[in-house]
Amino acid sequence: MIFHHRKGLTGLSGITAVAEDYDGIPLIDEFYSTLSHKNVHRDRFALACYLAFGDYIGGRLQSPQPMTPAMAHAIARAAAPLDVEPTPIEYYAKALPEGVGRLIVQPIEDLADAGQLWDASSPATNERRLVIVPVDQTNGSLRTLSTLVIAANANIFAGTHAISPWYPYLAIAALAAEQMECNVLVLPASAKQELPVTTDLLDLLEAASLCLEFSNN
Predict the structure, then answer these.
(1) 24-41 as b/e, with b when 16 or more CB fall inside 10 Å?
(2) Which of 77, 93, 120, 206 is deepest in the core (most CB within 10 A)?
(3) CATH number at residue 138
(4) Strand boundaries in the chain, DSSP class E
(5) Which of 68, 89, 110 is where one domain is finished?
(6) How far apart are the first and last CA of the chain?
């Protein structure tokens, strides 16, 4: 599957997937949001491609920019027993960002629910909040010192993902982590029931200098 980075005229940044001979045909071939991809590390972009479209990849995974051998190996292991070949690879890559904070990932189904977040207590000093709203309800983003609200079609991918409905939201979080200066992705406690925390998933995140936690409530 060949991936392209696409910047639309409406402020949406997308990952477009083009299926090849050994791939499945995605129900939706573009994973997009109002999150800017301008400064996203190449490994995290490749990770987002796999998390969003991994269900359908059966041959090579061609990212628009080279990834490190560590990320390529992590994707290939996670895709087994399918023989997925991540490409291209660069051996002298830019270092991954050293985030120091925790990124609380909060998907919401209704834009009206976003108002409750402003009434909630502010995140701790080392915490940031990423709120993901369905793109059919709004088209824009809002940034405060500790919170970023974006629109995305991750909810559509979540409804059909074979492994977990949280994989598309992790893809968005991986793309947002650098600009939020975070390296820990924090999901709601309820996500434990729907997200298999496998060695493959942890290895994928580790290859992108990310780790996973669940909140206590």
Answers:
(1) eebeeeebbbbbebeebb
(2) 93
(3) 3.40.50
(4) 2-7, 13-18, 30-33, 60-67, 85-89, 101-107, 127-134, 141-143, 147-152, 182-187, 211-214
(5) 89
(6) 38
Q: Quick one: DSSP state of residue 96?
A: P
Count of domains observed in the chain = 2
Domain that holds residue 13: 2-89
Instruction: Give 96-144 pLDDT, tens digit per residue.
Output: 877 789 999 999 876 666 665 554 555 667 889 999 999 888 777 888 8
Omega cis (within 30) before 86: no
Global pTM value: 0.92
How is residue 56 annotated by DSSP?
A: G
Note the pLDDT tens digit of each residue in 168-206. Answer: 999 999 999 998 999 999 999 999 999 999 999 999 999
CA 82 vs. chain centroid, Å, equals 22
Contact 29, 157 (CB under 8 A): no
Whether residues 108 and 183 share a domain: the answer is yes
